Amino acid sequence: MTMSGQLAFWILAALSVAGAATVVFGRDVTRMVLGLGAFLLSVAGWFLFFGQTFLAVAQVFVYVGGVLVLVLFAIMLVHRAEGADPALTSRHDVDIAAVALSVFGIMVVSLRSAWPSMTEGPVPTSTTQVSAQFLGAYLPHLEAAGLLLLAALVAAIVIMGGEGE
Amino acid sequence: MADTLVRLAWITCAVPFAVAALVALFGRRLGRLASIPSLLSPLVVLGVGIAGVLAWFDSGAVAGTWLVESSARWLSFAGAPGMNVGFAVDGMTALMLVVVGFVASMVMIFSIGYMSEDEGFNRYYALLSLFTGSMSLLVIADGLLGLFMGWELVGACSYLLIGFWYHKPSAAAAAIKAFLTTRVGDVGLLLGIALLWNATHTLGYRELLGAGVHGMDTAALTTAALLLFVGAAGKSAQFPLHIWLPDAMEGPTPVSALIHAATMVAAGVFLIARTWPLFEAAPAARMVILAIGAFTALAAATIAVAQTDIKKVLAYSTISQLGFMFAALGAGAWVVALFHLVTHAAFKALLFLGSGSVIHGTGTQDMREMGGLSKSMPYTAVTWFIGAAALAGVPPLAGFFSKDEVVRAVWEAQPVAAVALLLASLLTAFYITRATRLTFFGTYRGHHHAHEGGWSMRAPLIALAVPAALMGFAAGPIARLLGEHGESLDPVIASISVLVAVSGIAAGWLVYRDGAAAEVAMEGRMGALWPVLRGAYGFDALVSRGIIVPVVASATALYRYVDRIVIDGAAEGVAWLARKSGSGLRRVQYGDAQWYTALLGSGMVILFVLTLIGPQLTRWLSVLNWFAAGR
Amino acid sequence: MNFVILACALFALGLYGVMSRRDIIGVLASVEVMLGSGTVLLVGLSSSMTAASGVRPDPGALGAIGVLIIVVAAAEAAVGLAVLVSVARILHTTQVDGLMEVKG
After folding, report:
1. How far is CA B587 from CA A19, B513, B590, B607, C95, in A?
2. Are the beta carbons of A78 and C94 separated by less than 8 Å?
């Protein structure tokens, strides 16, 4: 791997860890949302890093542009309803930490056989290729995903609107 | 007719048990009439017994045969062979049924008058019926298993009846003492039965006493015989397990006549006679029985001499007479032992009921407060004289014949023991004369107005006086009932016996010429010996100090250290663990989604670890299997 | 050079957040972290293994699967946030302690 590749890896690693840590340990809602945004951006960066340009774009559009805004909206709604201090609390516990650590352990152990040896860089994938897949082999999946999104949309409306009537 | 009744011998248990249940349930409504249905129990026993006697003579009276045998397989499950329970009747059974039925009938009739004032009238009769059925079960069982059931049931009835007046602390204590002391013997009996079962895989008399005993080696036979004797000694109050019987006098006097003189205490003698082939093959065990029997006969007679309580005199007399029977058994003369059992049942039941009549009439048990009762209680006095003379061995009354045969049998086996028995006979004549003089002669020293009981109390005395007087002439038929031949009297032994009896009576008559004053004089003349005798050699205190106190102390220590800390600790530890795990497990299901997530993760980890170590685990398990299977 | 360890660590971190956060918002955000790290792991492993083994399926398939994951995650977020707002309205709190009753 090239020098710039290594640099990109470490920058992405630092960004994603910092973002995730803020999400998990942060005490302030706004900062937590910012951490989540940083983490989602880093994920998009990872996609780029692995040559999935289309995925990276989709990640930024859907997550950073959509979900994150949605989260912010939700938080503002909630806090208006709650009218309380938006400080976040956690229940830090040895048991929970042990469980998380063990899961980490078994993931590492079980993926050891699939350890990648990155002798050459990943092959970039073009949007054309992804589109071809979606209109070919993955057409049913695309349709299903559309249906799922529709269902989620309707569900969100129903859940939110139930109170108002 | 007789055959049919014998074939229905099980009704001797079933009817009394049913009657006991009915009287216990509905007796309160019946009031004093509860005694009428209760009488059915002993009459059924008596009827079956008489039918058995007749059928036995009809069938030719061959030893080792049975009139009827009926048994069912029991406890045979999961491939275990199980064991037989059932009943079997032969001459000996019939004889015992007659004794039990007759004495129980007399006692029940007597109790109508004796217990008429008592609150627990129906409880009393229910227990008497229960006892009658249990005693029948003990007698008609076709093997040691059924015998043991009856054995324990009569023990329980004895406990309940000794403690009949349970509000009296002394009665409750005596009941517990009797129960626990006989329990010591019962453990021996149970061990003996277990040993026999282990050696022969049968407990039925026919197989056990036939092929079973012949297949055992001498050591096992002797051990089994000695263990059975421990049981017999506990039930029949032989040294050193005799201590419960004097205390058992706390029960109602008719109960003492039935249970603690005629039937239950004789069960030990019956047990050994029933399993005689076993003892015949174990001479060493017989020597032990002879020694203990003779010793008990003599020692108890000396104690009886100094008692002032009329029932205690009779209690020690019973122990002494049972000693005679065991001496006869030890000498090999089981027929004689059973003969003495039968005559003793008659005259001792008579004496006990007589004492009951006296106690009923004077309101005291202390002979020093009696005297001159022959005038106010003539029926009681005359029947008592017959019983006393029979006990003393005056010819031609029952006791003379049976005691004489006992002495002769023992003389042939072991002259020293025979001398001890003769000495005991001398003392017997002495103490019963003493009791007679103190009670019925001289002037009345009590405060209560002495009076004779009603007819319900007089009739049994008269009815019992007949066998007490004449049973001696039945030696031949009784021996034939047992499948043996009666023997004629030995003139030498008979003369010595008569001499002993007469001198004992004469000594008692002369010494107690002055009634209660003579008792005081005896106390002075005998010095330190008298209190020792009266206190039964302090054996109770010895047992108390040597056994009870250490046992209680160690039990207390066990309780304090082992039970409290180890057992309770473990129990409470388990409870603590359950509580802790319960409160821990509660978290699993209380609706916390995050906790569920944590469990999900843990489960995933555990599954993964199992997958990883699975092959090794299987290998280890197969190694364990190999160990288990390979051995 | 082990992005696998990194992705696993991020996943475990998200899991820890899901289990420890007292607030539904925190829990949902942590779920997003888990999802993101899982997708990164999938995409990364797929790309690098394709490169290493020389077997070359159509690279567009990976992109298609990745898009599907993003779509599902977006739907989950939409519904989850709707539930969050609804709960906050009814219970006036977003603490998970108040959410222990599951009743129809």
Report:
1. 32, 92, 5, 21, 18
2. yes
Among C19, C71, C93, select the one facing A145 at the smallest CB separation: C71
Q: Which residue of C has its CA nearest to A90?
A: C21
* Sign of the CA dihedral running B593, B595, B601, B605: negative
Q: For residue C58, what are the contacts with CB-CB under 8 A and spacing of at least 6?
A: A129, A132, A133
DSSP per-residue string spanning B186-211? HHHHHHHHHHHHHHHS--BHHHIIII
CB contact (8 A) between residue A47 and residue C93: no
Torsion region of B89: left, alpha or beta (phi above 0 gives left; psi -120 to 50 gives alpha): beta
Question: pLDDT by residue (tens digit) across B240-278?
Answer: 888 888 888 888 888 888 888 888 888 999 999 988 888
Inter-chain CB proximity A106 and B604 less than 8 Å: yes
Q: Is any Cβ of chain A less than 8 angstroms from the Cβ of B613?
A: no
Q: Is B598 on the interface with A (CB under 8 A)?
A: yes
pLDDT at B550 (0 to 100): 82
Across the interface, whether the CB atoms of B608 and A99 are under 8 A apart is answered no
The residues spanned by each domain of chain C are 2-99
Kind plus residue range of the DSSP H or E element containing B375:
helix B373-376
**Does the distance separating the beta carbons of C10 and A55 come in below 8 Å?**
no
Co-location of A1 and A73 in the same domain: yes
Look up residue B578 and give its DSSP letter: H
Which CATH code is given to the segment(s) C2-99? 1.10.287.3510
ipTM metric: 0.86
Residues of chain C with a CB closer than 8 angstroms to some CB in chain B:
15, 18-21, 27, 96, 99-102
> Are residues A127 and A94 both part of a single domain?
yes
pLDDT in tens, B183-230: 888 999 999 998 888 888 788 888 888 777 777 888 888 988 999 999
* Domain extent at residue A83: 1-89
Q: How many CB pairs under 8 A join A and C?
A: 278
Q: Which of A57, A125, A150, A157 to mutate to test binding with chain C, by most C CBs within 10 Å of its CB?
A: A125
Q: What is the pLDDT of residue A113?
A: 64
Q: Which helix (H) or strand (E) holds C77?
A: helix C59-91
Determine the residue of chain C that is closest to B589 in CA distance: C100
Candidates B588, B592, B607, B608, partner chain A, best to mutate (most A CBs within 10 A): B608
Measured between alpha carbons, how far is residue B311 from residues B247, B251, B252, B358, B426 in Å? 10, 11, 11, 11, 20
**C15, C34 Cβ separation under 8 angstroms:** yes
> What CATH number is associated with residue A37?
1.20.120.1200
Chains near B (3 or more Cβ pairs under 8 Å): A, C
What do you get for the CA distance between the two ends of chain A, in Å?
60
Residue of B nearest to C21 (CA): B594
- How would residue A16 be classed by pLDDT, with cut points 50, 70 and 90? very high
For chain B, the average pLDDT equals 84
Q: Are residues A38 and A71 in the same domain?
A: yes
- Among B598, B604, B609, the residue with its CB nearest the CB of A95 is B598
Tens digit of pLDDT for each residue in B534-583?
777 777 777 777 777 888 888 888 887 877 778 778 888 888 888 888 87
Picking from C96, C77, C89, the residue whose alpha carbon sits closest to that of residue A89 is C96
- Write the residue in C18, C101, C102 that is nearest to B594 by C-beta: C18
- B601 has a pLDDT exceeding 70: yes
The whole-angstrom separation of Cα B172 and Cα B197 is 36
